Amino acid sequence: KADNKKDVKSVLDGFMQIPLIRVEDTAGKKLPEFKPKKRPNLEYVAKRLGVTIHYNELAGMHGYYHRITKEIHLATTDQTVFFHELGHAIDHKLHNDFIKMPKAKREAVAELTSCVIARMYGIDMLAHSQNYLSKYTKGKSYVANLTMGVLNKVGNVLDFIFSTEKSKSTKKGVKK
Predict the structure, then answer these.
(1) What is the DSSP string of 21-85?
(2) What residues are paired with 52 via a beta bridge?
(3) pLDDT tens track for 9-33
(4) From CA 36, how far away is CA 150, in angstroms rounded?
(5) Gap between the Cα atoms of 166 and 107, Å rounded
(6) pLDDT tens, 68-77?
(7) Which residues contact 30 (CB under 8 A, 6 or more apart)?
(8) How far apart are CA 80 and CA 34, in angstroms?
(9) pLDDT averaged over the chain?
(10) CB-count burial class (<10 Å; 0-12, 13-18, 19+) for 77
């Protein structure tokens, strides 16, 4: 079959952008950063963590959390993406096994955190979250198993957010 070229088919299954030169290795003025008209809800939680938020173009993604530089990079003003990345940042701070955890579990913690917080702001993203997490499992039927395995971590992350909210409102003189 190797000699018979009629049996060989080439298929382009996708592509991705890969930078050849890092931005840090280039000369010139720094590109202006996008400034959204409305800052994301819960931004003060990121500040409490010492995490900075940047808006810039990202190749093929909406956002990411960089654990070494403690930065959240966003290419969208969609708050659910920010909530997801904030979930990663808090998970990293609270849980010593963050780096050792499988990617599927890290994504489940962040996505469930985002889903709960989004719901509190009136945004329904259950279907989106199920589809997103099914990419890290063997299909939708296994998403429940994945999410059940991280509920304690999600609870810790949410407790951190709510304790930050409580301390913020107490400083303003409002008691909850």
Answers:
(1) S-GGGS-SPPPPPP--SSPPTTHHHHHHHT-EEEE---TT-SEEEETTTTEEEES---HHHHHHH
(2) 71
(3) 666 666 666 777 776 778 887 767 7
(4) 33
(5) 26
(6) 999 999 999 8
(7) none
(8) 18
(9) 85
(10) middle
